[in-house]
Write a structure and sequence with these properties.
Blueprint (H helix, E strand, L loop, with lengths): L2 H13 L4 E6 L2 E6 L6 E10 L4 E9 L16 E4 L4 E4 L15 E2 L4 E7 L2 E6 L4 E6 L5 E3 L4 E7 L1
Antiparallel strand pairs: 1-2, 3-4, 5-12, 6-8, 6-11, 7-10, 8-9, 10-12
Length: 156
């Protein structure tokens, strides 16, 4: 199963009246759950161990996000920048470079806010709005899902 097929399944789950899709094959397992009240994270679990290599398959599962005791910004006026694909989220173009954006930075349409690596391709994610970054919702070098919130932006 390739990335486009997985993305199509994620879109299907998000638009159809189903809450969960599970696919089990010999060396591949995929579980997609929809729960609008919670954010979801991707987990990578080993599926088959062969003599030369271990293969891994992504399993999308619902996981609650812990509430931070710090005062949160008012969410009623914030806009969310979401992941357009499944992959690994990076805040910098390489380990020696500064982060694309930090909390408090102003963004404009077309400004690169992060990179998402999918199948060895590094995709620059650009802001589609003008505003100020209020919160970064994902840690650097962690897996993200399609449509997962990445940043909260206060519109300008």
């Amino acid at each position: 199963m390739d990335l486009k097929e997985i993305q199509a399944l994620i879109k299907f789950v998000s638009t159809a009246g189903v809450d969960e899709v599970e696919i089990n094959q010999k060396d591949f397992k995929l579980l997609i759950k929809k729960n609008p009240a919670q954010f979801t994270t991707a987990q990578y679990t080993p599926v088959a161990v062969q003599a030369a290599a271990m293969t891994a398959a992504p399993i999308a599962s619902a996981a609650p996000v812990a509430a931070a005791p710090v005062a949160e910004p008012k969410a009623d006026n914030l806009i969310t920048i979401k992941s357009p694909m499944v992959g690994t989220f990076y805040r910098t173009p390489n380990p020696e470079s500064p982060m694309f954006v930090n909390v408090g930075d102003d963004v404009k349409p077309g400004k690169v806010v992060c990179i998402i690596e999918a199948m060895k391709l590094f995709n620059e994610i650009e802001s589609e709005i003008s505003g100020k970054i209020v919160k970064v919702l994902v840690d650097n070098a962690t897996p993200v899902e399609y449509d997962q919130p990445l940043f909260l932006v206060e519109p300008a």
